[in-house]
Amino acid sequence: MTRIILSTGNIITGGPSIIRKPGAARSNLELINSLRNNFQAAQQDYAGSPTSSNGNKQENGHSAQEDSRPRIDAWTATEDSVLYIPRIDWTAAGLQEDRAQYEITVKLFFLPNTSVAKRAEFIDEALRLVTKELQVENIDLLIASFPGISFEGDCEWEADKINATMGNEQEEVVTWAALESLHEQGKVVRLGIAEFGSEKLQRFINQVKVPPAVDQINIKDCCSVPPPLTKLANSAGIELLTHGDCTDILPSGTLRELLGHGGQGAGILADDEKAQNGLQGNLIPQWVVKYTAFVNYRGVIENKGYFAGAELVNA
Amino acid sequence: MGLLALGTALDWPDAQKRAQQVREWGIKQLLEIWNKAKYKERDAMLWGDEVEYLVVRYSNEAPKVLLSLRQADILKALAADEELATKGGGVPDLQVVKPQGSNPLPVFHPEFGRFMLEATPGKPWGIGFKELLDVESDMKTRRRIAKEHMESEEYPITLTTFPRLGVPGVFTDPYYPPSGPKLRSQFVPDEIANPHIRFPTLAANIRWRRGRKVQVNVPVFHDVNTPNPWKDPTVNYDLHNWPEDDDVRNGAAPDNFIHMDGMVFGMGSCCLQITFQAKNITEGRKMYDQLSPLGPIMLALTAATPIYKGFLADTDVRWNQISRAVDDRTAEELGEKVSTVLDNITKTPSANEHQPLKESRWRIPKSRYASNSTYISTDPRLRPEYFDPNLVIDESIKAQLLEGGMDDLLATHFAHLFIRDPIVIFNEDLEELDLTKADHFENLQSTNWQHMRFKPPPAGSDIGWRVEFRPMEIQITDFENAAFSVFMVLITRAILSFDLNFYIPIVKVDENMETAHARDAVLEKKFYFRKNPFPNRTPRSTVGSNANSPIASRPATPVSPVEDEYALMTVDEVINGSKSEEHDFPGLIPIVESYLDSVNVDVQTRCELSTYLDLIRKRASGELWTAAKWIRHFVASHPTYKRDSVVDDEITKGLVSAVIDIGEREQAGRGWKGLNVPELARLLGQFRGGCGSNGVKRSSDEIN
């Protein structure tokens, strides 16, 4: 079994992958494209020769072609038996201004078909990476996104009803307890959840110690919030924030394509006859974390990126 | 701004003798400010908008609508309002206005035209997203307070220009005859200008320096019954009050142009200007450069000026008219033959390029009111090819600035602004140089009206480096004005966050500015715009210890010819994105939305912001009309319009009446449904309660 950490680096200045395609209300394109771009960039930067170090233009900008991919260990790294794809240059970590200038938001996606018992580990790992990347001690807002919940439908009243039956409440409450302890330790200032309709939210509030400060919802026409949800949010002091993430942000098939030998894949998996030393086994994405460092007084996003955790289980 | 300085304003011959002194002192003051503020850091994002109004006198009974010249009385009434003052509002030019409380009331300012009023928020706006939603209601409050201090038949309206300004006969209240000693206009009286000595002196000295009256010539719109060639029937060729009355006999009023001859025809226009505070000088310089190419796009998109002096013009925006209205260049500076005075529109500007200069220091290609002429950012992406190789600068001033420690780019910028003469000089200010003030610097800086303005921190204040975005035309409703203001704020945040790059050669920005004038340029014309606005990836090996720190890095990709970087795009492509074969520019609205996707915004705020973005999206796509197009349509469909380009008193009364009705409905928050105004839904769509029965009411409006 191999643990894998995927990362995008700072995507805020990373070009078009952060631009929403008109009409797409929610998607995972930002994550997928950013991962793909970062893999390709790392392959270029770390490819074989050290010529890219300074000033000299690389002759071959397409060194990541099918047949001439750089060695996997050239652009990935293994530390403490975790495989980092790509390797992470931590010397670039940190923020430019004082911590107090920032609002740091983290959204942690627990993916479907993963062990609920391991969620505490996922939380620790995700926060370890984010706090290392941003060089901060704590997070201002952590939003938990549980699997199997969405808030969709043309009629938002109806969506609210359907939503009430989604997800696994018991698992969500148990996971929440782990987050509450982070809150108590001061590592996370505010906690939030995503995609909770009014009924689900009310039941959740009744069962947890620290009620969520934020409920992040995606509504196609964002102006039609179901009135019961607005009412509950107002009375419970919960902020309703918007988001554009899709429910299953990193399906295993998508991850397999990203790392495989197909058209734009990174060529890491042993899924091709030509693949040498490729990774073998069953690839299971476990969690994704999105982080954003926003300079409050200037309205500028300085850093945004993703980490994703996956497991490669031997068949 | 503060209390308007009083003193003895010098006539041009005297002012001219002291011009060099003012420039030298101005440069010393600039260096003082620069040295104090160049390391100023971490200023918050604050911003402000300025809304300008025309004050009209209108009643249903009166046969025509007039411009009210009671600016001074209205300002006095505002200054005398104790409640306004105790809540932080007032008139800074007449009283000491102290910001009170967290939401001070707005402040009011005089403008050049005596029929104008300017209003600004009581304190600068921040960048809290909820705060952005206060802009519209604050604008409405400003309009309400302005109206409350007017007579019952006076109204503050936000048309860019008054359609009947300068027509023969009565168009002001009270009436004054034209042809006064200061403006010497055959169309407007001196009393059309704010009587504060600064303003008539400005107008007189521009004329004096120029050696003749300003020539504000706008091509006339040829309708089916408009003669061709068309001769402006309001021009009087037999006037002999002033030497300048010869101008029209010397060809100042060519065929097919609406001819105007006074500063007020330009400076009497209302605009929507936005000023942003940057975190430091570097960010300010970057914003200045990156917003510059957006200028012509936003000008075309806000087009609202199709009528001049009672005629339909063949252009849609005010810009060039203001440019010509304050053009103080001499014939020699214009490159004309010094002996014969020719109209500069009908001749080629370079006809006399090689004739040696006798009196002037330079030939100057642009008016002091014009699009930007240079870039100033320290961004490594600023390529030498983007600069204008023919930029005129004062080399000795540049040398002084370099000597004083300023870098080349910024020194070049100010050495370009300082090729101009100061126009209004007060004798009292020339006695002693006060380095704690900025008056001499501001004298030049504030009479360089470019489409962007780079503003150093005011002397003795805690304010930071600022950038002013100046090209937008005022819109009829506060909803629209808020929408464009908020859009500009959001696009600056996206530019800084995503490190966007809109650079194109500055001469292409000039060309775009001209293009923006065309009738319906927003739909019919194409503009040079950069195809790929994204930063080049910084290879890992050059990443320093700080993720975003400015790295003087080489571009990661081979440098391509500058010509390959930009393409001709429609406003729709620039705003909403394109998918042409040549480029896939993502569009400013999708860029702003992606920015909003990455920040924490509550549902209702996001919804309200989307409403603003929707308006801009629809104006760019043509689904909704610009004010210019709507006004043209209003005129064309008016029963008294004879399809001869003439906009008479009755049409003007109808137009102003419609605008007043629209404004009153907006104040009351009642929407525009049922108003008997033709095609209003094409202008305002279903926003803010909607306009009519057609179309589905957007759910976004239900919560407003």
From TrEMBL, chain A:
InterPro entries noted in UniProt: Gclm, NAD(P)_OxRdtase_dom_sf, NADP_OxRdtase_dom
Tell me which GO cellular component terms the UniProt record holds: glutamate-cysteine ligase complex
**Keyword terms of this UniProt record:** Glutathione biosynthesis, Oxidoreductase
List where Polar residues composition bias occurs: 49-63
Q: Does the keyword Oxidoreductase apply?
A: yes
Q: Which molecular-function annotations from GO does this UniProt entry contain?
A: enzyme regulator activity; glutamate-cysteine ligase catalytic subunit binding; oxidoreductase activity
**GO terms for biological process?**
glutathione biosynthetic process
Question: In which pathway does this enzyme or protein participate?
Answer: Sulfur metabolism; glutathione biosynthesis; glutathione from L-cysteine and L-glutamate: step 1/2
Residue segments, region Disordered: 45-72
Q: Where is the NADP-dependent oxidoreductase domain?
A: 96-242
**Which residue positions does the secretion signal occupy?**
none
The entry assigns this protein to a family as follows: Belongs to the aldo/keto reductase family. Glutamate--cysteine ligase light chain subfamily.
The subunit field of the Swiss-Prot or TrEMBL record says: Heterodimer of a catalytic heavy chain and a regulatory light chain.
Task: Quote the protein name from its UniProt record.
Answer: GCS light chain
UniProtKB/TrEMBL annotation, chain B:
State the residue spans of region: Disordered. 538-558
Please give the pathway this protein is involved in.
Answer: Sulfur metabolism; glutathione biosynthesis; glutathione from L-cysteine and L-glutamate: step 1/2
Q: Keywords for this entry?
A: ATP-binding, Glutathione biosynthesis, Ligase, Nucleotide-binding
Looking at the UniProt record for this protein, which Gene Ontology cellular component terms does it annotate, in alphabetical order? Answer: glutamate-cysteine ligase complex
| EC number(s) recorded for this UniProt protein | 6.3.2.2
Highest taxon of source: Eukaryota
Q: Is ATP-binding among this UniProt entry's keywords? A: yes
GO function terms (MF aspect): ATP binding; glutamate-cysteine ligase activity
| Reactions performed catalytically | L-cysteine + L-glutamate + ATP = gamma-L-glutamyl-L-cysteine + ADP + phosphate + H(+)
Comp. bias (Polar residues):
538-551
UniProt source species: Xylaria arbuscula
Protein family per UniProt: Belongs to the glutamate--cysteine ligase type 3 family.
List the SUPFAM superfamilies hit by this protein, alphabetically: Glutamine synthetase/guanido kinase
- State the Gene Ontology BP annotations: glutathione biosynthetic process
Q: Which InterPro entries match?
A: GCS, Gln_synth/guanido_kin_cat_dom
Q: Per UniProt, what is one Pfam family of this protein?
A: GCS
Its protein name is Glutamate--cysteine ligase
